UniProtKB/TrEMBL annotation:
Signal peptide: 1-22
InterPro entries noted in UniProt: HH_YbhG-like, UPF0194_transport
Alphabetically ordered keywords of this record: Coiled coil, Signal
Keyword set includes Coiled coil: yes
Originating species: Luteimonas gilva
PANTHER family, A to Z: EFFLUX SYSTEM COMPONENT YKNX-RELATED, UPF0194 MEMBRANE PROTEIN YBHG
Pfam families the record matches: HH_YBHG
Superkingdom of the organism of origin: Bacteria
Domain YbhG-like alpha-helical hairpin stretches: 76-198
Chain segments annotated as coiled-coil in the UniProt record: 72-163
Cell location: Cell envelope
GO cellular component term of the entry, any: cell envelope
Identification of the protein by name: HlyD family efflux transporter periplasmic adaptor subunit
Length: 325
């Protein structure tokens, strides 16, 4: 009878010990989120009609593969006009650097000689009229007109001399600088139009999968509208929200196990980013028990074994302990 009594006493003791050990084994810290890929959006550079679509949604493409083409006519005309303006500015600058032609200088010298001859004639007439005016043989108004004509002729000589001197000295450095600036502006405008024309043929900037083609053949999307959205990268990543109670134990580079909904085997990954600020901070959740409601956005990079999984799948992540790599 005594052994049976001891067995009955030990049974609740062992049960309590098992419960205590189970309580000591804590669940690994985990967070919930979705499977995501890095995205690239190709916007519309101009508002032009879509004339060709080379891909379909879900298609895998290599870097540089053609995706779509927009109508080229208007941009090609704008590029031709910009190139013509650049050529005009280039010719004008060359003319400034070359300076005046010898024929222009010869013409200026001839104009000066003619002005000098007229000035001598006007001055001689005024000299002859002065004595007659003093003797009251001619009206004073005639003498005044002769004096004015002589002064005007001398001014014409000064103007002709200045025009000839300007041509002989050549183009000013300031005018050449202005011509160079005008040429640079015209060439920059032409280069901008050339880049815009090149962008009308949309190509894949990186290898990836076409996720979305929002517009159809013949549509005319507004400037900046997404024409093609691509998913890039060798493998997806887990975007999760880390609860505040385990935030201090999650660090960049830490190992993690990712359990995707519908797949039994866990995926291996590492934390590549975690935000220092919570995603949403209500004013009452800064202290006390409500602080546990805070969550921090984190990203866990997965290995290539997850490359074929689609984006958007729900998942949960268990983080390794601090001493596990």
């Amino acid at each position: 009878m005594k052994p049976i009594a001891m067995s009955r006493l030990r049974t609740p003791f062992f049960a309590a010990a098992i419960l205590a050990l189970a309580a000591c084994q804590q669940e690994p810290p985990q967070a919930l989120g979705t499977l995501e890929f890095d995205r690239i959006t190709l916007p519309a550079p101009v508002s032009e009609k879509i004339v060709r679509i080379d891909v379909r949604e879900g298609q895998q493409v290599a870097a540089g593969a053609p995706l779509m083409r927009l109508e080229l006519t208007r941009t090609e005309s704008q590029l031709a006009a910009a190139k013509a303006q650049a050529q005009q500015a280039r010719d004008a600058l060359q003319e400034l650097k070359t300076g005046p032609r010898s024929e222009d200088i010869a013409q200026a010298r001839a104009n000066l000689a003619a002005a000098q001859a007229q000035a001598r004639d006007a001055q001689a007439y005024y000299a002859r009229l002065q004595p007659l005016g003093r003797q009251k043989l001619v009206a004073a108004s005639d003498v005044d007109r002769a004096r004015a004509a002589a002064g005007n002729a001398q001014a014409q000589v000064s103007a002709a001399e200045a025009a000839l001197l300007e041509l002989e000295r050549g183009t000013r450095s300031e005018q050449i600088a202005q011509g160079e600036s005008a040429l640079a502006a015209a060439e920059a405008q032409a280069a901008t139009q050339a880049v815009t024309l090149q962008k009308l043929d949309l190509v894949a900037p990186r290898a990836g999968r076409v996720d979305s083609v929002p517009y159809k053949l013949g549509d005319q999307a507004p400037v900046g509208a997404p024409l093609v959205v691509m998913l890039i990268g060798d493998a997806p990543y887990a975007r999760v929200y880390v609860p505040e109670p385990i935030r201090a134990d999650v660090q960049v580079g830490q190992a993690a196990r990712v359990f995707v909904d519908g797949r039994d085997q866990a995926l291996n990954g590492r934390v590549r980013m975690i935000r220092s600020e919570p995603s949403f901070t209500p004013y009452y959740a800064l202290i006390g028990k409500d602080a546990a409601r805070l969550s921090y956005l984190a990203e866990i990079q997965l290995d290539k074994s997850a490359a074929e999984l689609p984006a958007g799948l729900p998942l949960r992540v268990e983080f390794a302990k601090g001493n596990e790599k």
